[in-house]
Amino acid sequence: MLTTCVSSGPDSIQVTKVLGGIMTGNSTNGPLYFLPLGWAIVMIVIDFHPREETMRVLLSLSIALLFAATGVAQYGDISDVKLLKPEDKEDVKSVPAPKGAVVLLDGKSLDKWTTRNDAKKPASWKLLEGGIAQVQGGDMVTKDTFGGSFKLHVEFRVPYMPKASGQGRGNSGVYLQGRYEVQVLDSYGLDSKDNDCGGIYGIAKPLKNACKAPTVWQSYDIDFHSPKIVDGKKTMGRITVLHNGIKIHDDVKLTKDNTTAGAGGDPGTPGPILLQDHGNPVQYRNIWLKTEK
Q: What's domain 97-292's superfamily in CATH?
């Protein structure tokens, strides 16, 4: 059972249960129902008026998710976005996997992924036309783990959420070995920090903001060198990142063993690639990894 209170003008609304995806509850005007429709919720209040012996159905469309979201996420019109450069609305060119690379995501299946913290549960992200996987249902991680040095190619795009801000605006993340996050976010036009798009979360901000506009396809090319522990002595891992072909990190030392929300564990051991579900419908396509000697 789910119980929470929200406010609708002068009336108090209490959600009491969830049945088949439809939340039911009560308000001072009468029974109500919340119908999730994509990234919005329709609230239906059934209002009884004994004197008139009639029943009114009041419909209001919330532009936010009931509990936390601050704006509708969409991949449509961005004509109101002030572009810094005309090419910022052009998709990055997709790069096919080279010989010897492992294709982790081709958009046809999620066979190489599981749900985080439950290796027996298949990943539940939504597969769309065009080889796209859209965030839903929790973080997903690769079944395989990776150590040593490797190159990871990731293509992604963030939704347009004009009413949202900060970390609530197209948030996701790519975690190397499940521990070291390269942030995914709508940070277009911002003075980037280490928690903005392209930041190594909590470690290093991008050398420059290389973001494209929201809804536009972008890419990361990440050269990763794992930390090493030999005879009890640790050598820090290192990472270089190209964002849309622009170098935003150059051989940065990983000064932490685990970034925020990472999987943790022994930094000297291999780990999976983890893609984060932060509650926004971020989309990914064409992810591949090539190990280096």
A: Exo-inulinase; domain 1 (2.60.120.560)
